[in-house]
Amino acid sequence: MTSAKLSIIASVEEVESLRNTRRLEYKQIENVGKVDNTDSPNVFNGFSTGFKQISISPGTDGVNGTDDDLSTTPSVDGKWGTSDDLIDTSLARDGYSRQIAITNLPGGDSIKKVEVTVRYPASNGAIGEIRGVSYLNDEFRIAR
To answer: What is the extent of the structural domain holding 117?
Structure first.
């Protein structure tokens, strides 16, 4: 369970760092299909929906928890992040999967709930599940 907790903390800290360093705009921190890339210097596809295997590599976009985390080579179309990319399952953490759910809270566009759920191998072959929740506002802080 300790490794699962660390995965949650790392995910939450990465989301905050993406905002704080302005690598992503606040409006881009969303799940796939909800990202607003308008006037943003970097195009972001969003955090994966549903449970995905946790990778030891952030993929070509450099962000953990996205659809390209296990992609190593663009395939036939020569483009990254498409369904024909080659997947390298050796990059996956065996038995661990993660879901990152970003929810805009009612009452404005200034705060989001970031919910990270990790499934992990528990004792006796069972699958454990642990969840961490954080809140993200649209005020960035410069990391020093």
So the answer is: 2-137
